[in-house]
Amino acid sequence: LKIAEKFELPVVSLIDTPGANLSPEAEERGLGHAIASTLTLLSSLTVPTISTIIGEGGSSGALALGVTDRVIMLENAIYSAVSPEEAAELIYQDEQRAKEVAESLKLTATDCMELDIVDQVVPEPNQGAHRDHHEASRLLKRALLQNLADLQTISKRRRLRERTKKFRNMGEYSSRLKSTISREVNALRGTVLRKVNEFNND
Question: What are the C-alpha distances in Å from 21 to residues 28, 40, 92, 100, 163?
Answer without folding.
Answer: 11, 20, 22, 24, 27
